[in-house]
């Protein structure tokens, strides 16, 4: 669920793109050499290592919650602001493990899904069901960049004002999640039409307003029930805490959560080039519409943590654990060289990517 669902898109009858021309990558054929090399050179890197996942997630969560506590308890502004920054970065990194949960085999890291939901997903009101079964559609060969892709908007072809709106609306996400879990989900248990609406429209971490989620079934439906129950109890507890501790602690926590959501939205803004207007794309075309920000970009681990600085490579190897992506990138770069398809998805940093996207919305590439 994202607040940017108010943005009109070429996927909606309400508005058209800034230009009617299709994206420039839809007709790119697959680079068979690249696809073969990506698989063959990385066969030994596919095991998710619990000794990396667990400490990384736990330390990130501890820093995040410690930052929130410090921002609430410290009255000296510089100390409180420093704690808030630590809180934003820690919670942001911990939250992004939801991306890993959608790709790793459910038996690869025993207990990790439960532990992450208990410590991060439910406290942040974004349990893993909000991404599981959704993000994999983004990687589907025939869905990427189309109206059926929940995580794609042709932002490069849209109006210039959509970019700041896309970013700023992320600030509303924590409040929206609080209302969803504390009010809408409980009401939905007694009002079936509302329950169906909440599930279809505001139960997925998606950015495509045309996306409608199908009802959960089987074991997944049972998981959704327990995760929704936990999130609703926690959301109601947060609201009730105002009567015991006043409004200030909750407001500070929401501001920090909004900061993490804003940072994630900025990362999302540059995760792709967003140049496809609904056509089916080859795997290579999807790769070239995605972004790597490899070293020496120094700040990338902060705004694109948990391996997301290698987002284009991730689209070639979706099941590759985040801790293996740097080595996979090194091997592919050394084997293929810097003048072919693989190198074309690498960019120097955040600001050049934002500038490129802004130019695209104004008619230039």
TrEMBL record:
Residues annotated as transmembrane: 51-73, 79-99, 111-131, 161-182, 231-257
- Transmembrane helix in keyword set: yes
User: Where do the Fatty acid desaturase domain residues begin and end?
Assistant: 77-335
Checking InterPro entries in the record gives:
FA_desaturase_dom
Signal sequence segment: none
Segments carrying the region annotation (Disordered) are: 1-26
Q: Name one GO biological process term.
A: lipid metabolic process
Q: Where is the composition biased (Low complexity)?
A: 13-26
Q: Which UniProt keywords apply?
A: Membrane, Transmembrane, Transmembrane helix
Please tell me whether the keyword RNA-binding is annotated for this protein: no
Protein name, entry field: DesA-family fatty acid desaturase
What is the scientific name of the source organism?
A: Novosphingobium colocasiae
């Amino acid at each position: 669920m994202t607040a940017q669902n108010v943005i009109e898109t070429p996927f909606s009858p309400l508005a058209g793109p800034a230009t009617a021309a299709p994206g420039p990558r839809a007709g790119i054929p697959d680079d068979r050499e690249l696809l073969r090399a990506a698989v063959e050179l990385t066969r030994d890197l596919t095991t998710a290592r619990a000794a990396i996942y667990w400490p990384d997630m736990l330390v990130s969560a501890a820093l995040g919650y410690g930052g929130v506590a410090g921002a609430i308890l410290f009255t000296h502004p510089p100390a409180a602001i420093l704690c808030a920054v630590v809180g934003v970065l820690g919670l942001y990194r911990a939250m992004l493990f939801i991306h890993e949960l959608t790709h790793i085999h459910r038996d690869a890291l025993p207990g990790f899904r439960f532990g992450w939901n208990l410590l991060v997903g439910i406290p942040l009101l974004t349990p893993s069901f909000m991404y599981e079964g959704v993000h994999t559609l983004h990687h589907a060969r025939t869905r990427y960049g189309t109206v059926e892709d929940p995580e794609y908007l042709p932002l490069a072809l849209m109006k210039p004002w959509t970019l700041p709106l896309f970013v700023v609306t992320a600030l509303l996400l924590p409040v929206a999640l609080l209302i969803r879990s504390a009010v809408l989900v409980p009401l939905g248990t007694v009002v079936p039409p509302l329950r169906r609406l909440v599930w279809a429209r505001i139960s997925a971490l998606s950015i495509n307003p045309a996306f409608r989620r199908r009802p959960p079934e089987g074991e997944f439906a049972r998981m959704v029930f327990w995760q929704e129950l936990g999130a609703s109890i926690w959301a109601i507890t947060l609201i009730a805490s105002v009567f015991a501790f006043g409004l200030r602690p909750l407001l500070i926590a929401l501001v920090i959560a909004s900061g993490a959501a804003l940072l994630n939205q900025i990362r999302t803004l540059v995760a792709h080039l967003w140049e496809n207007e609904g056509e089916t794309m080859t795997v290579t075309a999807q790769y070239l519409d995605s972004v790597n920000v490899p070293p020496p970009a120094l700040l990338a681990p902060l705004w694109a943590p948990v391996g997301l600085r290698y987002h284009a490579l991730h689209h070639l190897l979706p099941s590759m654990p985040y801790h293996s992506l740097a080595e996979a990138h090194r091997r592919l770069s050394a084997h293929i060289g810097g003048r072919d398809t693989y190198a074309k998805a690498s960019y120097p940093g955040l600001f050049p990517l934002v500038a490129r996207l802004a130019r695209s919305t104004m008619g230039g590439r």
